[in-house]
């Protein structure tokens, strides 16, 4: 019997989803993450699976893996010191950016400091025209001078991003080759090799993020691959990607930016599949782990995609699942600043030492400690027995903050939760505006170790239709990686007018992209041809930005200008409410995506309840600083048809669902908890 395993490594816990290929049965598991020993959590999980379920490493026929190591590195800003080599006289590209402030209505809003400080940006005397013609090639002496300055500044890696490299990468490649000879120990990232898209700032900041996460990602993947081989897993690993697909580990090591949203995209893919299978057409996914809270829009089971997703303080301009992340995870640290203001995040306690209530040496208060101090979690072991919550330790960690603020511990704990939810609300509000959706029509699909813990608080603030908590919310990201298709994106910048001549010029680059894509899929070991999708970034002549428009390859083959123009006008009208059908149109980028399908598990329907839902106990807990008697339910005892009112706590192996007063819970046909505000 063969098994397919999906693993999601988060900041605090590592989740396993195991699919038995013959029966379609799905198993789940959770163990502590080991950022101090990357790969150790994989070994621990495989040992647990063998001891608990008899699954030997040699029986594994497919292994895929998602991790938040990339995004956590950016959010926590704990990557290496970098240097940026750019075209001379364009050294301020990161400082100038797009001259936007993060919050235009906030007088105190400040732009984030770039990941590469201005003193570490060095100009290279080179130049490429907008057409791609080389005006001036870089000289070795100039590159050597910049390298010496970068070394003197303490740089541990170099990013090369030149003007117009998306049209011709020759100068970037030349400098990268020189650096490989002069400093073979120095990691080098080029913007054209990262994602060759137009616009210098967007391409540069994406390459900088890639260089910033590369050392930690490479270290992690090396340990991960060695752990699998040492354990006897006979198949090469796949890594989940930001675009919701998977790729080989070699590509992940070479292109770390492609996995920057690895863990978060996996969760959205898993949530989308579950939402579609269970009949929820409109959901916002809420994935809260130890470090961040991630929110995405899912319509009819399909995540929304885009470029320019926010990673901490920065946008990343590669095709990716549209996820907004904020540093508000279960391990986010609470503190009181010098002005006496209570703050939460983005710093996280991670899994080591973790929240104080985990009893692993942590002493700083976190969001998880705030929930424990209110006695809302910890009424059973968490993480499949990995954690026994210490309520006294949680209160002890919060007590210094309470002393500074002059308020009871339970009240301060409630405020920690309020501040965290407020930060999530601000992030979700931007996502809602971006996609033009009404949250009152959406369910909040909660998962991750802490998603169900905080979902009702956020849904109440957003006035949402309700909350959905799947049967195994702690392992949805691992499930997403397990069911994700092999998928890769390709792009070519062209700058063509939408006319007969321009459409005819698309045929050759489209054929090249398709050949490259099919070769990539074959190298991933997929037996089929896959499914190819074609799109173009298009705009009206004179506009500054493009919109991605889905095309049919047959339109390009037949030279159907009218069909391509009609698709663009329709998409423009959908997004902006109008179209100018008589205006000239330009095609800037040609895009192609290829996907190879993977097996999916069966969706079980539990037997319906025969008796009313009965709490296993009652406990005293706090909501908004006020004590209340709260019913405690065991998730495994709940079945379709059960219903009860809040306040309530639902405990299970991989998470805790907190139901505040005023909410009603029903269990649907698939075993999901449907939580909505009472009438």
Automatic annotation (TrEMBL):
InterPro entries: ACX-like_C, ATPase_NBD, Hydant_A_N, Hydantoinase_A, Oxoprolinase-like. Keywords: Hydrolase, Plasmid. GO terms for biological process: glutathione metabolic process. Residues 504-670 form the Acetophenone carboxylase-like C-terminal domain. GO terms for cellular component: cytosol. One of its GO terms (molecular function) is 5-oxoprolinase (ATP-hydrolyzing) activity. It comes from the Bacteria. Signal peptide: none annotated. Residues 203-489 form the Hydantoinase A/oxoprolinase domain. SUPFAM superfamilies: Actin-like ATPase domain. It holds the Pfam family Hydant_A_C. Its EC number is 3.5.2.9. The keyword Hydrolase applies. Residues 4-182 form the Hydantoinase/oxoprolinase N-terminal domain. This is 5-oxoprolinase (ATP-hydrolyzing).
